[in-house]
Fold this sequence. Notes:
- There is one protein chain.
- The protein has about 575 residues and is of the alpha/beta class.
- The protein has four domains: about 55 residues, Orthogonal Bundle (Arc Repressor Mutant, subunit A); about 130 residues, 3-Layer(aba) Sandwich (Rossmann fold), CATH 3.40.50; about 140 residues, Response regulator (Rossmann fold), CATH 3.40.50; about 160 residues, Rossmann fold, CATH 3.40.50.1360.
- α2 crosses α3 and α15 runs parallel beside α16.
- It starts with a helix and ends with a strand.
Amino acid sequence: MPNRDxxxxxxxxxxxxxFVSVKELSELxxxxxxxxxxxxxxxxxxxxxxxTFGGAATLRATEAPPNEDNARFSDKPEGLLVxxxxxxxxxxxxxxxxxxxxxxxxxxxxxxxAESLALQSEETVVAVxxxxxxxxxGNWAGNYALKKWxxxxxxxxLTYYLxxxxxxxxxxxxxxxxxxxxxxxxxxxxxxxxxxTAYQLTRDAxxxxxxxxxxxxxxxxxxxxxxxxxxxxxxxxxxxxxxxxGLEGDTLKNALKTGDYCKIGLAMFPEIVGPACVxxxxxxxxxxxxxxxxxxxxxxxTSETLPDxxxxxxxxxxxxxxxxxKSLSIPIEVDRLNIHPGxxxxxxxGFIVPFxxxxxxxxxxxxxxxxxxxxxxxxxxxxADQSLKDEVDLRRREIAFIAAEQVQPxxxxxxxxxPIANYLAEALVEKESxxxxxDSMPVFDILRRVPTNILISTGGAYRHSSxxxxxxxxxxxxxxxxxxxxxxxxxxxxxxxxxxxxxxxxVTMKQAMIRSAREVILLADNTFFGQESVVQVAPLxxxxxxxxxxxxxxxxxxxxxxxxxxxxxxxx
Length: 572
């Protein structure tokens, strides 16, 4: 297998499974383990995977699939999100996708409440003071290490790439060093907010660094992965502690109660944060002033102090509200179920959930739903993945519509294959007196219904996965053809690497199309920018026009304009 294809296969396998060992990759690709280790080192340097002891972990931010009993989303109304909600509560996905998903919401002037992490134009952020809370937690862990291990603190930091979770890691480490100045962070690893990744990373770290005695986890899912890794390795329960930031649900509260590697945890109280988010949403709907951040409470709990704030019942741990109201600082009144003077109630509040399998979001959703229901407000749990898919899909349709407007009667056009190509073909159905050349079977099938136009297939070998015609026959046909315009699609676009694509047989077809066209029009929504696929198609300078969406940053558009590319925006 060629080197580039092998690297791409490694990335795909690692992303699919979260973690793959060197041995498995060696057997799969029929190369030596030394070759695999070299490949992993290269991919790690390129920030495409995370090299770990014995294998590689994904850098893709994903979540474990929900269980069947996890009622993830229910009673979702039809239609676009922007037409369904009056206020939106949102948790961050990634900065790039936050911008894309929330752009239309902002344009419609729908208020946004940010949960946990600031977005861009929210009315307020409902969140704990991550730095202060984590520092207090680190102080406790430092004092524990001081008494237990005589000033020895060797820390494994299981973090995540968002600013709030990174602040937790920084605060915790600073807190430990307040007590033990020479505390050592042996590793700081991005556990991707996934149980399985945290489990594997912890096993790797403890196998190589047997002196680790403090494991900090930025949420319960990561902490639970670390705890089970310690169990499976048979680590002495008195030689290491796992310190969770969250105590989000029953799992870690039970671990804290039994002292099973977990001696302490920081509770963030989803039971309080949920109603606070709903109350903030009501205030924002009525355009009432809100502070820039509503600081939610936290408490550092041990097995001895856990019962002070929680009661263990047959159905799980329940917050002792009478104690919480007296001892915790709640940022907004959450008991005024029927007292909202001077304004009305939103009809429906939406909540975008990034990690629905996490206990934090399960319990947050339960608390939000209950509070909204008492106020007769509809509450919708929004599937972040599906909403993002719908938003991208709409933007691609708009790009295709604008592209179709570039086609005039008498034009000979080349249409490449790709996610926007089918929409372009549908938009061209109404056009007359044009000639279309394509290597895409779906495009051909759509346009063959139009008898007034000439339709030419390049022929060639059929590639089932992409439904494209490729190979020497197709490339040879293009040598004999000339087109006025080429509508080109690729999977990666950067200033440095230019246009790139995943499959070499399709790349050679795209290059042949470029040579056959008088004008190259690139169709690409913003998600393709900033990515480099396996094989370069051509430098960006071959592009005459780019049709894209308005979520592409202005700085990128300026850089492209400097290359002489005319940019046409599909505004939503």
